[in-house]
Design a protein that fits this description.
Four Helix Bundle (Hemerythrin (Met), subunit A), mainly alpha, single chain, about 300 residues, flat, 16 helices
Length: about 300
């Protein structure tokens, strides 16, 4: 389809806003903010909060815009992505790339100026991992793409933590690990729901190359790993009873829903697990923030 220059020039601020994939960003940004509360043991301060909120959104939006440019060929052949601005040429690939690079540079400057250099570097590291490791290298080659490539989504807590503390402690890396092991559970549930789209464009997602049963089994295994990792900070002495009770309840539900999916392979349970996985991560980080705030106030 040939798009006229006039049509291509009609992009609005809203088109550029959707280019950043705000729905995808929301949970990642939430973990970065919660990591600030965890590190500070309470309110991190309005200035720092604003810096991480703005800088974090910009760097994640930059990564998503570059992803749209790179994947525009497969996006055009999938129903759920066919209307993305890079597919319809509402925003040209060149303009989208320039927009992404400007966002990246601005986010780095904001995080360095308002927080510290380590926080800025962690933000850019997440972007580089997502664009180079996941999107360009692994996504179209390996069924394990989301296991390694998905680690990009584990960088936001490192940004939030280092913005407050200026260092990467062992506990900061725990926050990274919890998202690293949680990601396959979350993403493979989504992949089961849209596996036909992936199959149509030749993306080797796990349900496409190994089947639904194997995917459900892998989800169960990673749910178990997630549950184990979720208890580590208690053993480390970093978190106490409120988090322990919350983690046991949240992980119990995660394991139950994952096992139920393996037993039935019903779409309803797949969708239920996908939605719960997002709530699970958000509530787990809230529980950590509350626990740290209570403990540090008592101490």
């Amino acid at each position: 389809m040939v798009v006229s220059a006039v049509d291509s020039d009609r992009a609005t601020w809203l088109d550029y806003f959707w280019l950043t994939k705000p729905r995808v960003i929301s949970l990642l940004l939430f973990t970065a903010i919660m990591a600030m509360f965890i590190a500070a043991g309470g309110w991190p301060g309005f200035g720092l909060f604003t810096v991480v909120l703005v800088g974090g959104y910009m760097v994640a939006g930059s990564a998503n815009a570059l992803n749209m440019v790179i994947d525009r060929d497969i996006d055009a052949r999938m129903k759920r992505t066919a209307q993305r601005p890079t597919v319809t040429d509402k925003i040209s690939s060149r303009d989208a790339t320039v927009f992404a690079l400007v966002l990246m540079a601005a986010s780095f400057a904001i995080l360095w100026w308002g927080a510290n250099l380590i926080a800025a570097l962690m933000a850019v590291a997440g972007l580089v991992w997502y664009v180079l490791i996941y999107t360009l290298y692994m996504k179209r080659r390996f069924w394990s793409n989301i296991v390694i490539g998905g680690a990009a989504g584990a960088f936001p807590p490192l940004v939030g933590w280092t913005a407050v503390t200026g260092d990467l402690s062992l506990f900061a890396w725990y926050l990274f690990l919890i998202i690293f092991f949680w990601t396959p559970v979350h993403f493979w549930a989504l992949a089961l729901l849209i596996k036909d789209d992936y199959a149509a464009v030749g993306i080797p997602m796990l349900p496409v190359v190994r089947g639904e049963r194997e995917t459900a089994l892998q989800i169960c295994l990673y749910a178990i790993l997630t549950a184990i990792v979720a208890l580590i900070p208690v053993l480390m002495g970093e978190l106490r009873w409120f988090y322990l009770v919350s983690a046991l309840l949240l992980n119990g539900l995660l394991l139950m829903r994952s096992l139920r999916l393996y037993q039935t392979l019903e779409r309803g349970w797949t969708l239920s697990l996908y939605k719960y996985s997002m709530l699970y991560l958000a509530l787990l980080f809230v529980a950590m923030a509350v626990d740290r705030a209570v403990w540090m106030r008592v101490s």
